[in-house]
Amino acid sequence: MSVSDKYQIEQRYIRIGNSRPGTGLTGPLFIVAHETANNSADADDHFAYFNNSQPSASAHTFIDDGKILEIIPLNEKAYHNLYTNPEDNRLFGADANDAAIGVELCRTGVFREAYDRYVWYHAYLCRRFNLDPSTKIVAHSTLDPRRRTDPESWLVPNGVTFAQFLRDVRAYYNAWDSSTSPPIRVQPPERETGSEVDTTILRRGDSGADVTFLQRKLISLGYPLPRFGADGTFGAETEAAVRQFQQEQRIRVDGIVGPETFGRLNRAKPRRPKPFPGTLYRLKSPYMRGSNIGEIQRKLGVPADSIYGPVTAQAVRNFQRKEGIKVDGIVGPVTWARLFR
Ligand SMILES: [Zn+2]
Question: What SUPFAM superfamilies has UniProt attached to this entry (predicted)?
Fold first, then answer.
């Protein structure tokens, strides 16, 4: 068996969408090396994320310690570098998205195994597309130095400099047809957790198709957005629904949708309606308080201080009017069922 046969490449392509425009790549003229900056998502998780969530960012290939997975055909474009960055044009005379293959190293599993596949795959691309491994592989951090630190952000904590990575690729490239795999120089793994996330995240203030997709997903899972629906704008109502989802999933509650929350959204089953607790919630003196009122407020998109004051009562009346049910500002079984369906 020769080095060229050391690993299999799996091709499982995501559907056409924001992540995969389905348009042709020029060349490829060069390769952009990335790492995902996500400690918990492997290659399959990234496939699911891009296939389902379709953020307008992507890469061709995801590599973990057991798999080399191409999720976008190598003759099509992927979005793995900002078009506005000038360095790709300066170095290679083209935008990376139009002329480069983007390769992502996943953080999950055994670093040495994932890294060996990552090195091998870069050598494979250089062989296949006749690219010089010393000059045609560029770090994402070189193209986007203000925003990105990858792939060094995962290589260096594991004992590999980018220069060493290029030497390892060169060694594989030179040994491609031989039967002996070259040694890679990896120091014992030293696990560090990074906080930078390379994939798209959605948070309050964002808008567009990704947000609409997120909102439809939330609604379908039983997190209604009664005031604004799937309007494509990530405002207070969407944030409250995301927080509630995160709370119920027992993951970090920050109202921000990154790969982990997207992964949970993709796997979650629709939640059951919350049964009416048997108490009428209404404006009275002193004001009623309690966590159920906080949940009512989150559903209504008003500040959730867990106190049933005039603002909440007014929001309940508005909601009831919109729903076409009796307008009395009191949350009884009917209003509750509409709020928590
Ligand atoms: Zn990157």
Answer: N-acetylmuramoyl-L-alanine amidase-like, PGBD-like
